[in-house]
Amino acid sequence: MLIKKIALLSGGDSEERDISIKSGLAVYQALKNLNYEVSLIDPINTDLCSLVNYDAAFICLHGKNGEDGKIQSLLELLKVPFTGSASTASMLAMNKYYSKLVWNNHALITPKFLILNKTNLDYKKIITHLSDPFIVKPSSSGSSFGINLVKNKDDLILAFTDASKYDPTVIAEEFIEGREFTVSILGNKSLGVLEITTKNEFYDYNAKYVSNETIFSKPTDLNPEVLEKMENIALSAFISIGCSGWGRVDFMMDKKFNFYLIEVNTVPGMTDHSLFPLAARNAGLNFEQTVQHIVDLIE
């Protein structure tokens, strides 16, 4: 496919707008350096039907209306090729409840969970099914918005209220105590394993985008077989949902070396705090080469 003119989509109206703008600006400059004719487009103030005038779209929209299959559905309708996963896979990946159903069906391990509503906020019953403490989070959200660690019944009410701001479907999830890892994927190939170490109770918004104390590193204490197992789990999780192009898979490892899938991100961040560019750099790709690879994968 010959691509010369690219619409770079960033901004949008989700809670992750600021992060999307930062990702978009970084990718925009890379595309310019790669000699593409590129336009920086914010969907909230653009007639999206004008996208038919471009050879392809590079999606840097994070969160709702960008990662959840909606913009992908529109681009499919307009017959404009775009980066990343198709609309159905994007929707499944964004919705953690649906992702878990898919993974359970494929015998891929994910933390136990319950769907919460105002009638079943019984802390004692929840901990008998899950763990003490446990996580409460919106089913469809990114950048750890609305995610809270619940340690008592008062926490539960506050956490449910917070998560409900982002999505009407709220999940209570088993809290896995252990180490957090991520595998970035480019063209159905792993870019390697990175460990996330934070001083926060978990990898929340502050740890992701604000704190300079969060450490992303290659795990040096794990043998090659364990690392390969992580990469295979990540690829299986990615492919089972139908994802393609590029993305990132996050999971936990407990003290017994059991792995638990947390989520798939189909439009990873491309900021200076983002994991995907770091993983690509560790794999020998600079930022412009990474962006070019993503463009080359457009179908």
UniProtKB/TrEMBL annotation:
Molecular function GO labels: ATP binding; D-alanine-D-alanine ligase activity; metal ion binding
Gene3D superfamilies to which the protein is assigned, alphabetical: 3.40.50.20, ATP-grasp fold, A domain, ATP-grasp fold, B domain
Binding positions for Mg(2+) 2 per the UniProt entry: 263, 265
A Pfam family recorded for this sequence: Dala_Dala_lig_C
GO cellular component, one term: cytoplasm
Key word Lyase present: no
A GO BP entry: regulation of cell shape
Location relative to the cell: Cytoplasm
Enzyme class: ligase
Stretches of the chain forming a coiled coil according to its record: none
InterPro entries for this protein: ATP-grasp, ATP_grasp_subdomain_1, D-Ala_lig_Van_CS, D_ala_D_ala, Dala_Dala_lig_C, Dala_Dala_lig_N, PreATP-grasp_dom_sf
Record-annotated ATP-grasp domain positions: 100-296
Active site feature: 16, 143, 274
Pathway(s) this gene product operates in, as recorded in its UniProt entry: Cell wall biogenesis; peptidoglycan biosynthesis
Family classification: Belongs to the D-alanine--D-alanine ligase family.
Name of the protein in its database record: D-alanine--D-alanine ligase
Protein source organism: beta proteobacterium KB13
